[in-house]
Specification:
By secondary structure, the protein is an alpha/beta fold. The chain is 33% helix and 22% strand. The protein has helices spanning 19-34, 57-73, 84-88, 91-96, 111-118, 171-175, 183-195, 219-227, 247-254, 272-278, 284-298, 317-329, 357-380; strands at residues 10-15, 38-40, 47-52, 78-83, 101-103, 128-130, 154-157, 159-160, 179-180, 200-204, 234-237, 262-264, 303-310, 335-339, 386-395, 398-402, 408-412, 420-429, 432-437. Strands 2-1-3-4-5-6 form a 6-stranded parallel beta sheet, sandwiched between helices. A 5-stranded mixed beta barrel has the order 15-16-17-19-18. Strands 7-10-11 form a 3-stranded parallel beta sheet. It starts with 9 loop residues before the first strand and ends with a strand.
Length: 438
């Protein structure tokens, strides 16, 4: 059937989960627009595409909830669910939810073709399932992004899959083994994005630090190649696991001026016994050493964020305090705090815990208090300084955007969206900076 069937069709795309999913959703939107589809946000639609997440049971619940919501909003629409939840969901569950197509990971580039089949009125209505086993799959899903649809900056996925086997994590089974995007493909896509006005790209992956190990390259090779693109002003990383990072890589990255001095390195726990039970593959001192490399190479102003999981089975009060102590000593900025979520299909699922939900909730609140204090302390170091801001929004003589160090700025003055301006910071609150355009 002809691609003409997509012309004028209204498609709503919803994304749950990580930055890699955000990139994939943007790329799917680009592919569908090339065939004449119209991407919509709130209006009635002909097709809904949900890029799903399954990292926790709560993520599963949100995926199912969103499917039901969109089905109610536009009952006649076709529902396509792709991504991690779609990789593991049963066909019976999909049918019960009214899903028309399940598309697993590394198959998302086929979505336009799948939609053509779904919209063919001559075809008998049935559940379309496009999935493959990812255990030995080394195929890169050839998605391409021409311009960002949902953000000013563009997310660019350069790595997929995970070789780790953290005891609490289901992601390796739904994302597959590590695979790197060919360097030339990433450079070509970023050149297209810059030609369409994009000034900042965020490199994403499941194990970003392992980029290139399967193709004879490195993450630094990629960043150096991207930094040569005229018109690209900022390169930023999404989350980067400490695995695969060495001192030489950090120092080489620090020599690239376009790379933003902001890094998110998930810690998960600051207690060695919990880290061992999580199968993280490092001790707290190992993690602290990696952080010291970044501070040595990028300077004291570098913004380092992290994730911590609270309430892992067997975590005592002492172990939790060790995490808080390490987090404070490493002077993190932005911190994401997650209560432990038992995940069926993981080794940690069988571990017994004496912690009540109330006790875990108390620990989460304590961790959040520390999170807020550390972010406030980091943000306040910029008071009285000039910062560079890439403008994302500009209304009524107020501009808003991000610094290279990933702090949100609201400033008095006028500027165009996507313009880079200098702002004098005169105050900070809740991790945000406030000032005036110079």
């Amino acid at each position: 059937m002809s691609h003409e069937v997509l012309k004028g069709k209204k498609v709503r795309i919803e994304t749950l989960g990580c930055r890699s999913n955000l990139y994939e959703s943007e790329a799917i939107a680009s592919a569908l627009e090339a065939y004449g589809a119209v991407i919509v946000k709130e209006s009635l639609f002909d097709v809904a595409i949900i890029n799903s997440c399954t990292v926790t049971q709560e993520a599963d619940r949100k995926s199912r909830q969103l499917i039901r919501k969109l089905k109610r909003f536009s009952p006649a629409a076709r529902i396509v669910v792709c991504g991690c939840w779609a990789q593991k969901s049963t066909e019976d569950e999909a049918k019960a939810l009214g899903i028309d197509a399940l598309v697993g990971n590394r198959m998302k580039s086929r979505i336009p073709e799948i939609l053509i089949n779904l919209l063919d009125e001559s075809e008998e209505k049935r559940l379309i399932v496009e999935r493959r086993s990812l255990q030995y799959c080394e195929k890169w899903d050839d998605l391409l992004l021409a311009k960002p649809h949902f953000h000013t900056r563009a997310f660019v996925k350069v790595q997929d899959g995970c070789s780790r086997s953290c005891s609490y994590c289901i992601i390796p089974s739904v994302r597959g083994r590590p695979v790197s995007r060919p360097l030339e493909s990433a450079v070509k896509e970023v050149k297209t994005l810059v030609a369409n006005g994009c000034k900042e790209v965020v490199l994403t992956g499941i194990q970003l630090g392992f980029y290139g190990k399967d193709i004879g390259s490195t993450l630094a090779d990629l960043v150096e190649s991207l930094s040569d693109i005229n018109g690209l002003e900022r390169i930023r990383f999404g989350s980067i696991e400490p695995f695969g990072i060495d001192r030489d890589l950090v120092y080489r990255l620090a020599s690239i001026s376009k790379l933003c001095p902001h890094f998110h390195l998930p810690l998960q726990s600051g207690d060695d016994r919990v880290l061992e039970a999580m199968s993280r593959g490092y001790a707290s001192l190992d993690f602290a050493r990696v952080i010291s490399w970044f501070r040595e190479a990028f300077g004291d102003d570098v913004h380092i964020g992290t994730d911590i999981i609270v309430g892992f089975p067997g975590e005592t009060d002492e172990m939790f305090k060790n995490t808080l102590s390490l987090v404070e000593s490493l002077a993190f900025g932005r911190i994401h705090v997650f209560p432990y979520s038992a995940r069926k299909g993981t080794r940690a699922y069988a571990l017994k815990s004496d912690l009540t939900k109330e006790r875990i909730h108390e620990r989460v609140k304590e961790a959040i208090l520390l999170r807020d204090r550390l972010l406030d302390r980091y943000a306040r170091r910029w008071i009285g300084k000039n910062v560079s801001v890439l403008v994302e929004e500009s209304t009524c003589c107020i501009v808003e955007g991000l610094t290279p160090h990933f702090l949100r700025v609201k400033a008095n003055g006028s500027a165009m969206q996507n313009e880079v301006v200098k702002v004098f910071v005169n105050s900070a609150e809740d991790g945000n900076l406030y000032g005036i355009i110079l």
